[in-house]
Amino acid sequence: MIRTEDLHKSFDGVEVLKGITTEFYQGKTNLIIGRSGAGKTVLLKLLVGLFRPTSGRVWYDDVDLYSLNKKQLRNIRMQVGMLFQGSALFDSMTVEENVRFPLDMFTNKTRKEKLDRVNYCLERVNLEGVNSKFPSETSGGMQKRVGIARSIVLGPKYLFCDEPNSGLDPKTSIVIDELIKSITEEQNITTVINTHDMNSVMEIGENIVLLSNGQIAWRGNKSEVLTSDSDTLRDFIFASPFLQKLRSTALEKE
Ligand SMILES: Nc1ncnc2c1ncn2[C@@H]1O[C@H](COP(=O)(O)OP(=O)(O)OP(=O)(O)O)[C@@H](O)[C@H]1O
Question: Burial of 49 by CB count in 10 Å (0-12 exposed, 13-18 middle, 19+ buried)?
Answer without folding.
Answer: middle
